[in-house]
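User: Fold this; tokens only.

Assistant: Input:
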Amino acid sequence: VQLQASGGGLVQTGSSLRLSCAASGRTFGRYTMAWFRQAPGKERAFVAVVSWTGGSTTYADSVKGRFTISRDNAKNTVYLQMNSLKPEDTAVYYCATKYYTDSLWAYWGQGTLVTVSS
């Protein structure tokens, strides 16, 4: 499975961005998808996850109510809609995927940089 993340950029506080992650190389169905982020000088951290059906989502407390994860299985793409962005959201955002019964994130995208200016 190959993952290609896109949509990052430089925005001001309070702005919105939508990240996309396109998967290829294998049938997208039955793969759980997630977004993680790594801020400068910090460990990679979980942001959001969506089940392979799209019916279940979970968010980190820091983004709950501002970010929305979704997927389009017909397009093999997962999205992260980010609203009300804050400077502390500045990070490289990575998408990841695993088969829905697995515990480890087996495949990672290359990351897309989001910079939020104050």
